[in-house]
Specification:
Elements lengths: L1 H18 L13 H28 L18 E15 L1 H11 L4 E5 L4 E14 L2 E10 L2 E7 L5 E19 L5 E19 L4 E20 L4 E12 L6 E13 L1
Helix pairs in contact: 1-2
Length: 261
């Protein structure tokens, strides 16, 4: 088994390198959807192989012939989990970048402003595996409802058009746990794909485009075990859209529940 892992881990690293030929926010062309999906696939394979290797290493250090006793407080055990959260998101869109993007499509000089107090609600779903007492791997998907803003003409102050942005984010996340009891604070890092559904409206027309971007997720949270299987969760993450074409970052605060198998 170790030989298989020893082959697959370098293969995953190679996939990750080939899928990501550019550095984040380093070039004028978008880090587009297919590239971002390739990075997510490579990261998922790499994370899975690391998790598998950690479990194999732990298995070798245990007395496999000893009887397995199921405890009510074995909160650090390995195994699968699923969960979901209700999310409140606060946007950090680069308004200057939106103005620059608009100049490429229209000669009318405009200033872009997000609507004041621009927060939105959404939800996230996760599923993954606890690899050992301090480490787990998960895949997560998060949807956030529309953020909104306006392009205002600088010559007369009128609204040229309105715009809404609805992000959907999928990431492969690595979680490290600081404690292993009933309360388990953790840190999180993820890499994956963000799709932004942008709708712009003028008095006479509506246009729509979806942009795929590389996304990074940084954050942390805390798990509280109600029982051996049911877990309450609170998490705060910063989602970073790693491209210089669309710079749609946002802060995500979520509360939810998960189930440990």
């Amino acid at each position: 088994m170790r030989q298989v892992a020893a082959v697959l881990i370098p293969a995953a690293v190679t996939m990750l390198a080939l899928a990501a030929p550019t550095t984040v926010r380093a070039q004028s062309s978008a880090f587009d959807g297919p590239q971002a999906f390739g990075v997510m696939a490579g990261a998922g394979l790499l994370a899975g192989m690391i998790c598998w290797t950690v479990e194999l290493a732990n298995a070798d250090s245990r007395y496999d012939d000893a009887p397995k006793v199921e405890r009510d407080d074995d909160y650090e055990r390995t195994g699968w989990f699923v969960g979901g959260k209700i999310v409140s998101a606060t946007e950090f869109l680069d308004e200057g970048q939106e103005e620059e993007n608009n100049r490429e499509a229209s000669p009318i000089p405009v200033e872009f402003k997000m609507d004041s107090g621009n927060t939105s609600a959404g939800f996230s779903l996760v599923g993954g595996r606890r690899c050992n007492d301090r480490f787990s791997v998960e895949i997560g998907f998060e949807w956030v409802d529309d953020f909104s803003g306006k392009f205002i003409r600088t010559d007369n102050g009128n609204v040229a058009k309105s715009a809404t942005f609805a992000p959907i984010v999928g990431t492969i996340n690595l979680k490290g746990y600081l404690l292993t009891g009933r309360y388990q604070p953790y840190g999180l890092f993820g890499v994956g794909l963000m799709a932004i559904d942008e709708v712009t409206k003028t008095t006479s027309a509506t246009s729509r485009q979806t942009t795929g971007l590389l996304a990074l997720r940084f954050g942390g949270g805390i798990d509280y075990y109600l029982t051996r299987n049911w877990v309450l969760n609170a998490e705060l993450d910063y989602i970073y859209s790693a491209t210089d074409i669309e710079t749609f970052d946002y802060l995500s605060l979520g509360f939810g529940v998960s189930y440990r198998f």
